[in-house]
């Protein structure tokens, strides 16, 4: 079986999503593939059979489907027009939404299980479709402030699924765990450029050093090191876009004095170097 990892390219690096109209006239089978982005398909006209891991979904006019991050999927078209919407949840969370957004990226959850919503709740289905269409229009029109509007519509879309999820597939089962890690998360948020070791973090949470690494990843959904680096790179992005400083200075400002290390971590989260990121954003703003 041939499988490929799709790399989704964003039109605007500051808006980590891709949404587009697609039309297939012929009877076509696509290969199995996956990508880190969550994907939603909204069928305008025609038929599309979608296979997500071991599940089959026969979609027709007006249907919508959710495919989780890194879930293997393929489709078989019968002459179809539809909207494809792909977005990276990790790029949209903040401290207030992190516990909820994590649920959409949790590898232990088969996100396609949420598709029962669209069969059982007309209200949920209509609300989700409305959000997809709003996002599509914003990305087409690009009116002033569309980036903010898109972010709001994505949050509304996810909120709809959270609130209509009667089977509690997306329920937070670790409220006490989140509360226990809150001092660590708050410290990272307020001291992104400061050096914080796993030992220090484990002491803040009152968890043994040997248990902390596994515990943090289980609760947050990413390793402690990745979480800290993610926040640092986000700060570096803001510095590069808003201040007239060198790339090296931006690295120093976020606590990454080693230039090679800074470049490597930046590329991990952005698929480009800091210089390439700044250049792309300057070109986009012209």
Automatic annotation (TrEMBL):
SMART domains for this protein: HTH_ARAC
Keyword set, alphabetical order: DNA-binding, Transcription, Transcription regulation
Pfam families tied to this protein: Cupin_2 (PF07883), HTH_18 (PF12833)
Domain of life according to the entry: Bacteria
InterPro entries linked: Cupin_2 (IPR013096), HTH_AraC (IPR018060), HTH_AraC-typ_CS (IPR018062)
Domain HTH araC/xylS-type span(s) in chain numbering: 182-280
Protein name per UniProt: HTH-type transcriptional activator RhaR
Species for this entry: Paenibacillus allorhizosphaerae
